[in-house]
Amino acid sequence: PGAGAQDFELQQPQDKVSVAAGETLTLTCTMSGGGPAGAVKWLKGLGRGNETVYEQKGSFPRVTRVVNESGTDFSIHIRDVRPEDAGTYYCVKFKKSLLGDDEVLQHGKGTVVSLHETALVPSMVAAAVVLCFLLLLGFFVALCMYRRKRRGEVESQCLARPAATGSFLPIPLRCCAGTSGTPRFDFSCDSIHHLCALLQQSSKEDNDIHYADLQPLPVAPQHSRSPRAACSEYASIRVAAQ
């Protein structure tokens, strides 16, 4: 037994381990050289007040061996880590004394376990990226639709204007027989032929006159003008703009 204890070596390589609440913690402990008979335990803390986290006998619902029934690998898994699991863990090899009690043969240097905030899982990151992309795409589509709508309104306004807008200017001609407001034209409002003749004559003299648009004017109030003086027609002549 003495030779076995002398050749025995326990290795606990982890110095510090950080884990998030709810995850699984793995604590590593391996042994070599055989060693004397005795239990192997995982303790949280040393000395008085230590807590047995795992041993070969007993029930530990959240703790399992990494390699079952192994005589050299005593690594363990602790599932569903909780805040109270933070602390320093030791892998301890015991031996039987002459009195039959368990004595500590050797223990590891200890592994400090701490908890950190839960990190964003890749699926959550991917979902956030997709959401941002959809929002940007929706904004871009809305902007394109708004610009297209504005462009359509502008084009509609342009199409609503006469095709010759910018090239011809309208010059309204009114006929009011017997009134002082017609210094240039003197003909009866009841006869459109006079106006047509006048337009034909003007067209011969001025090649810039292209066409005339004859439309009825509203009847003037009876009390302001005599029926004879009421305007009944007008001509709108378009000439080339200077």
TrEMBL record:
Keyword Endoplasmic reticulum assigned: no
Domain of life: Eukaryota
Stated name of the protein: SIRB1 protein
Keywords: Disulfide bond, Glycoprotein, Immunoglobulin domain, Membrane, Signal, Transmembrane, Transmembrane helix
Domain Ig-like: 1-91
UniProt feature coiled coil, ranges: none
A Pfam entry, by short name: V-set
Transmembrane segments: 124-146
SUPFAM superfamilies: Immunoglobulin
PROSITE patterns the record matches: IG_LIKE
